[in-house]
């Protein structure tokens, strides 16, 4: 079949070999940035974009974890409540000041948050796999549980970090910079890098995708399906913990409304990023792009004066539906 | 043969110079095919020759890149997505195509439900469904969920669906690959009855015996090209095989090698019981090919899954090389060198939405890890090796498994299992959907494997395969091993008598 190929056909071949679903979110991102620049020239300034990136760090890190859960064919609706719960426990612990050194306090609090996040994920995972329940129901339940516990811990009010030295030290994690780059951006990138290595370069990542595309095939291939799903939930918990670690220094306080609707935003980010909601494909960097897109839209709305920013949630809801439609049509063509 | 006159009647459906490319990859090259009224037309060719593609084009599921389709002599554009049914054209897909969450009745009436005053008339639909299934002689329950049916039963529902739509032309793409002999016979009886009434059939199969018995005419494709169309009675099975592969084929089965009398026992199964399998005991020697025969549903797969660690067993024991294997522990079975190849390649064997490479190495990723990361070069090497060993033919290496021809999927599945380098290989229906040339290669492969000192269990519903390959044959019936045949005792009638319960263990 070595017929002569004209440059045109070879271009067409390269084009058709590109997976549209993988590049679509990045194209959308570029389009949005151009649109934003037309709305308001201030928008493309490095400061503004860095600001947007910093603010999307929470959703972006959570979305990396959600990519694993969704790729393995599950769903976690509890992440928003989990943020509130883990953050509350973290602040309450910091307020005990069991160690004299503020640095020691902050470090143990960080470790505590990670452990608690992993534990929350483990809880979701055990209920879905060992309990053989629908992940939708389980995490709907734990969404209520985590939220309720937070409200109880805060007695309906706010939980605020009291120790000034800890506050001063910890503040840097959100507001500080490293070679001019805000820490949240660096940490998000690090999480994404780790996530993509795990997803694309390790046995576990392949197993996640296999479990998400066909559990029976995975089982017949000697994969411990329950364990893979469990680990995915735990990774989700860990990324929630990272988001909490970035979130707490920002305001130094939580309340029963912390993290509301974050599950919607995280899932939207993952779907925009090209990961199929029915499992079997994971796009870590796509999810990061998705989170950035969501924040950009909010930012454009803020900078423009023809859409009310009170419509933000409605717009985000529209975006997830649009993203699903685009995904559907791209799959059909493939 | 009813309607094949001298000057020839007008074909119901015809392909004129039909070509097809997927993207840049050509698959069919200007193929002609005429389907006459009331004939059974067999479409033959190697795996990947383009049979399924041609059949899909003639039933509207794919559009040709060039060429014409004539319906009753007039050029038409067939509507896609199964809407050609309205024109009297039905296709029974090679890869089963039923929605898993429907009941049998719902699936039979999908898109043409019977209604009464605007409401679904369930009793009426149930009755028609029952009749259609009865005609095929199956006792599948009309309210059963498709997802609960065995592969064979799903196939029967698919057939009932096509036949019950009073089609003028029915395309059957390897309908018998998952059927038992009894089911095949009943299907063929229906085909003959409908043919007598004027329905035409296009029949794709790799079972030459069936083609010789059932078809009126044969068309052979090779590498996407039309090779020959002729009356079946002018051809022989050998001649068809030769036309398909383009060369003379030697003996299908390799020479049998009995294992040494003192060859060690590598596998001992004692009094094994699962839900359905009762009290199964047998042994396997190094260098042996042990056949497992029996009717479909006789418990062979369940027994093998229990041995392979895929299924719990309640009592009994499995011992490999002197070490007992725990129940339902695949890690331990793998450690012991036991590998099982499923017969359900789409549902349990391969990730059809993925490409070849991740499928090949899915079960053995640990062998490709360097410092915890998967090495692409190491995987590429495995792929090259597998291609060389199993001759997996795709015209574009980036295709997804779902786009590969059925036979090449089967070769990939075997390659995937062989990545485990097992000492004991259990293959379940190893040549399902595979052409004669490749069958010969796989038989050769299994035989060499045994001679090299591995041990092989072949589970198959194809009698000639069991007889041609095995040095011993176990026959199962309703969950029990009814007897073990050896040497000259391995004969079709002995197997049949054990499988049907007419004779008890020798
Ligand atoms: N959707 C598709 N995209 C790309 N290539 C395809 C697609 N469908 C089929 N092919 C290719 O077309 C060729 C012919 O496939 P086809 O399924 O028609 O073979 P076949 O004769 O039915 O083989 P088998 O006996 O194995 O079922 C194969 O090389 C296959 O990989
Ligand atoms: Mg085919």
Structure description:
The complex is a heterodimer of chains A (334) and B (506). In chain A, 75% of the residues lie in helices and 3% in strands. With 334 residues, chain A is mainly alpha-helical. Chain A has a domain of 210 residues. In chain A, strands 1-4 form a two-stranded antiparallel sheet. A two-stranded antiparallel ribbon of chain A has the order 2-3. In chain A, strand 2 and strand 3 form a beta hairpin. The longest helix of chain A is centred in the middle third of the chain and has 28 residues. The relative contact order of chain A is 0.19. The N terminus of chain A is likely disordered. With 506 residues, chain B is of the alpha/beta class. Chain B is 31% helix and 25% strand. Chain B has 16 helices and 24 strands. Chain B has a 6-stranded mixed beta sheet, sandwiched between helices. A 6-stranded mixed beta sheet of chain B has the order 18-21-22-15-23-24, sandwiched between helices. In chain B, helix 12 crosses helix 13. The N terminus of chain B is likely disordered. The interface between A and B is medium-sized, with 25 and 29 residues. Bound molecules: adenosine-5'-triphosphate and magnesium ion.
Instruction: Round the mean pLDDT of chain B to the nearest integer and report it.
Output: 88
The helix content of chain B, as a percent range, equals: 25-40%
| Alpha-carbon Rg of chain A, integer | 21 Å
Low-pLDDT windows of residues of chain A: 1-5
Q: What's the order of the H and E elements of chain A?
A: HHHHHHHEHEEHHHHEHHH
* Strand count of chain A: 4
Give the terminus-to-terminus CA distance of chain A.
23 Å
Biggest interface between chains:
A-B, 25 and 29 residues
3D shape of chain B: globular
Strand arrangement within the widest β-sheet of chain A reads 1-4
Percent strand of chain A equals: under 5%
The bound ligands are: adenosine-5'-triphosphate, magnesium ion
Secondary structure: helix percent of chain A: over 70%
Oligomeric form? heterodimer
Residue share in β-strands of chain B: 15-25%
* Count of separate DSSP helical elements of chain A: 15
Low-confidence stretches of chain B: 1-5
Q: Over all CA atoms, what is the radius of gyration of chain B?
A: 24 Å
Described by the principal axes of the CA atoms, the overall outline of chain A is: globular
| Number of helical segments with 4 or more residues of chain B | 16
GO molecular function, one term (chain B): ATP binding
Pfam families (chain B): ABC_tran
Keywords (chain B): ATP-binding, Cell membrane, Membrane, Nucleotide-binding, Repeat, Sugar transport, Translocase, Transport
Protein name (chain B): Sugar ABC transporter ATP-binding protein
């Amino acid at each position: 079949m070595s017929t002569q190929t004209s440059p045109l056909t070879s271009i067409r071949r390269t084009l058709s070999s590109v997976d549209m679903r993988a590049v679509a979110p990045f194209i959308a991102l570029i389009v949005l940035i151009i649109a934003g620049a037309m709305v308001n020239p201030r928008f493309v300034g490095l400061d503004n974009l860095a600001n947007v990136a910093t603010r999307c760090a929470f959703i972006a890190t959570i979305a990396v974890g959600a990519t694993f859960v969704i790729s393995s064919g599950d769903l976690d609706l509890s992440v928003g409540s989990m943020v509130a719960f883990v953050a509350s426990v973290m602040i309450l612990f910091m307020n005990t000041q069991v160690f004299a050194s503020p640095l020691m306090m902050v470090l143990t609090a960080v470790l505590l948050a990670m452990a608690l996040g992993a534990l929350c994920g483990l809880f979701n995972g055990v209920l879905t796999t060992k309990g053989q329940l629908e992940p939708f129901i389980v995490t709907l339940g734990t969404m209520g549980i985590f939220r309720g516990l937070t409200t109880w811990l805060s007695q309906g009010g706010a939980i605020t970090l009291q120790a000034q030295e800890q506050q001063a030290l910890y503040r840097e994690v959100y507001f500080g910079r490293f070679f001019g780059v805000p820490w949240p951006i660096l940490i998000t990138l690090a999480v994404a890098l780790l996530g993509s290595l795990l997803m694309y370069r390790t046995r576990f990542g392949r197993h996640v995708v296999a479990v998400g595309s066909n559990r029976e095939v995975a089982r017949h291939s000697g994969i411990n399906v329950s364990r893979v799903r469990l680990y995915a939930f735990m990774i989700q918990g860990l990324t929630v913990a990272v988001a909490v670690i970035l979130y707490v220094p920002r305001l130094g306080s939580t309340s029963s409304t912390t993290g509301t609707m974050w599950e919607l935003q995280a899932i939207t980010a993952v779907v925009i990023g090209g990961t199929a909601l029915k499992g079997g494909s994971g796009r870590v960097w796509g999810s990061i792009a998705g989170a950035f897109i969501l924040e950009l839209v909010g930012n454009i709305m803020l900078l423009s004066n023809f859409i009310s920013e009170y419509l933000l949630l409605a717009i985000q809801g529209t975006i997830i539906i649009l993203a699903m439609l685009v995904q559907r049509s791209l799959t059909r063509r493939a | 043969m009813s309607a094949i006159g001298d000057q020839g009647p007008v074909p119901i459906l015809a392909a004129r110079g039909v070509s097809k490319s997927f993207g840049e990859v050509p698959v069919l090259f200007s193929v002609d095919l005429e389907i006459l009224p009331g004939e059974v037309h067999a479409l033959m060719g190697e795996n990947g020759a383009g049979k399924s593609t041609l059949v899909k084009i003639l039933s509207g599921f794919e559009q040709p890149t060039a060429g014409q389709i004539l319906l009753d002599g007039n050029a038409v554009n067939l509507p896609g997505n199964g809407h050609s049914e309205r024109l009297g054209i039905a296709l029974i897909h090679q890869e089963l195509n039923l929605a898993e969450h429907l009941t049998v009745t719902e699936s039979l009436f999908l898109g043409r439900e019977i209604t009464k005053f605007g409401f679904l008339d369930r009793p009426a639909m149930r009755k028609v469904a029952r009749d259609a299934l009865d005609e095929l002689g199956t006792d599948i329950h009309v309210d059963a969920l498709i997802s609960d049916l065995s592969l064979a039963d799903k196939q029967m529902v698919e057939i009932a669906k096509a036949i019950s739509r009073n089609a003028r032309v029915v395309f059957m793409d390897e309908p018998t690959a998952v059927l038992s002999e009894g089911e095949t016979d009943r299907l063929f009886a229906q085909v003959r009855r409908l043919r007598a009434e004027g329905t035409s059939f296009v029949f794709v199969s790799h079972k030459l015996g069936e083609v010789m018995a059932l078809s009126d005419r044969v068309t052979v494709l090779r590498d996407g090209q039309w090779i020959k169309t002729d009356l079946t009675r002018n051809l022989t099975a050998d001649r068809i095989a030769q036309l398909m592969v383009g060369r003379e084929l030697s003996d299908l089965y390799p020479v049998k090698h009995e294992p040494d009398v003192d060859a060690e026992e590598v596998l001992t199964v004692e009094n094994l019981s699962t839900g359905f399998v009762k009290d199964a005991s047998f042994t396997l020697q190094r260098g042996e090919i042990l056949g497992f025969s029996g009717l479909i549903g006789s418990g062979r797969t369940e027994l093998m899954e229990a041995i392979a660690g895929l299924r719990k067993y309640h009592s009994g024991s499995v011992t490999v090389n002197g070490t007992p294997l725990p129940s339902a522990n695949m890690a331990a079975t793998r450690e012991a060198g036991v590998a099982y190849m499923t017969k359900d390649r789409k549902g349990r064997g391969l990730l059809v939405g993925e490409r070849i490479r991740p499928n090949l190495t899915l079960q053995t990723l640990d062998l490709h890890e360097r410092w915890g990361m998967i090495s692409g070069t190491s995987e590429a090497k495995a792929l090259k090796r597998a291609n060389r060993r199993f001759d997996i033919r795709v015209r574009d290496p980036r295709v997804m498994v779902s786009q590969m021809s059925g036979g090449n999927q089967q070769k990939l599945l075997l390659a995937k299992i062989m990545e485990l380098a097992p000492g004991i290989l259990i293959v379940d229906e190893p040549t399902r959907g595979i052409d004669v040339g490749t069958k010969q290669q796989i038989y050769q492969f299994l035989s060499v494997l045994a001679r090299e000192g591995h041990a092989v269990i072949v589970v198959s519903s194809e009698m000639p395969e069991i007889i041609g390959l095995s040095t011993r044959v176990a026959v199962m019936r309703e969950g029990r091993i009814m007897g073990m045949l050896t040497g000259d005792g391995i004969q079709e009638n002995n197997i049949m008598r054990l499988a049907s319960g007419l004779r008890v263990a020798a």
